[in-house]
Amino acid sequence: MERLYADHNASSPLRPEAREAMLRAIDLGGNPSSVHGEGRAAKRALEDARESLARILECGADAVTFTSGATEALHLAMESAKAMGFGPVFVSAVEHDAVWSYAVKLWPEAQLIPVNQGALLDVAWLSQELDNQGGQPLVIAQGANNETGATQPLNAISTRVRAAGGALLCDAVQLLGKVSVAQFAGLADWLIVSSHKIGGPMGAGALIAAPGIDVFNGRAGGGQERGARSGTENVAAIAGFAAAASVACDDAAVQAYQDLTSRTRHAFELPVATALSGVDFVSQTVRRLSNTSCLVVDGWEGARQVMAMDLAGAAVSAGSACSSGKVKMSRILKACGYSDSAASSSLRASFGWSSRIEDGARLAELYLEAAARAGRKVTIQVA
Questions:
Q1: Where residue 321 falls among pLDDT bands split at 50, 70, 90?
Q2: In terms of domains, do 311 and 270 share one?
Q3: Do 280 and 167 share a domain, yes or no?
Q4: Cα–chain-centroid distance for residue 179?
Q5: Which residues pair with 7 in a beta bridge?
Q6: Lowest mean pLDDT among 33-42, 49-58, 179-188
């Protein structure tokens, strides 16, 4: 039987438009830093991609710095904020490890922005601290959580940060292609997006800097990207990124994506919620991405859930997939107030552009069968 892929928040399958753009770029053959004809052709492809992504993200082309992925872009943004002297620093308690681990290294004194059980930031707490502490604060807050799908009130956060004379650094990796660009464009001083989350290739990301915000390159090398980073640009991956964004990010495409994924998720969650005793859907009571379902079955270890589903023919995740293939206790769920046991017992299903509505019902069937085999109480007969 055909395998079922439900791990789009980790990586979405390559779109045909991205593949075609990559093949055209590969055939160019030149280095975009070279001055000969082949190099100029590669440079033109690179700049075409930059201009295309800038139009999509409603910014100038000079605001776009291409990187090898979101992690590099996030680190470049944080290093730039450090060099510009922003402080005090506030980091949300549910940031991706790519942000979290580097932020606490750069700013050991960084303060955590608490969240509720749905992974939603406490904006009232942040507002009070911004008023009390002064300075030129830096707030690091993601747009949407990769594990739970919770979407943050970026407009309210941005308004408060700017009123306090500070800067906002936003990991928007999980927003791009899933919500309207109008909901986050222009709200952050550093905005980070990624290719392979929207059906582009791995190996390309982008940092979008607001006017007047610098991007500091602390690494020696060729000074590519107008000196913002060093290393030859991956033109083929960047061309694929721009092609994927061009078909994924306009409002009509986003609306179609939300309709498809919300119906698919509903087809998964409803039978599971009805049949499985003790299941908890995280972030169900707050606004969340239409494609993401994070569930906790306390006492059924997440790693075992993922393995059982893989053996059954379905690809899902437990926690973040960007941890060298390791499945561990969810730091995100711990921040939300879950116990150690519950935070070790989560599974994430995330649907996407290549999903079919019937995938939700099939995934539910496979999951309930796995739960029954694991000795969980399932209240309906499973084939």
A1: very low
A2: yes
A3: no
A4: 12
A5: 350
A6: 33-42
* Domain shared by 92 and 142, yes or no: yes
CA distance linking residue 121 with residue 111, whole number of Å? 13
- Residue 378 domain-assigned (yes or no): no
**Number of domains forming the structure of the chain:** 2
pLDDT in tens, 322-371: 454 556 789 999 999 999 999 999 999 999 999 999 999 999 999 999 99
pTM: predicted TM-score of the whole model, two decimal places: 0.94
Residue span of the structural domain in which 24 resides? 16-248
Strand order in the sheet with 346-350: 279-282, 292-297, 346-350
**Widest pairwise Cα distance in the chain:** 69
How far is residue 289 from each of residues 79, 236, 254, 259, measured CA to CA in Å?
29, 29, 11, 11
Residue ending a domain, among 213, 233, 248, is 248
On whether both 43 and 175 belong to a single domain, the answer is: yes
What mean pLDDT is predicted for residues 285-306? Answer: 96
The answer to whether residue 54 is domain-embedded is yes
Alpha-carbon distance of 183 to 132, in angstroms, equals: 29
Residue 284: CATH number of its domain: 3.90.1150.10
Q: Just list the catalytic residues.
A: 322
In a domain, residue 10? The reply is: no
| Predicted confidence (pLDDT) per residue in 212-261, tens digit | 888 877 776 667 777 678 788 899 999 999 999 999 999 999 999 999 99
DSSP symbol at 151: B
| CA separation, residue 286 to residues 37, 39, 52, 148, 171 (Å) | 53, 49, 33, 10, 19
The answer to the question of residue 380 being in a domain is no
Phi-psi region of 162 (alpha: psi -120 to 50; beta: other; left: phi over 0): alpha
Residue with token string 């604060």: 137
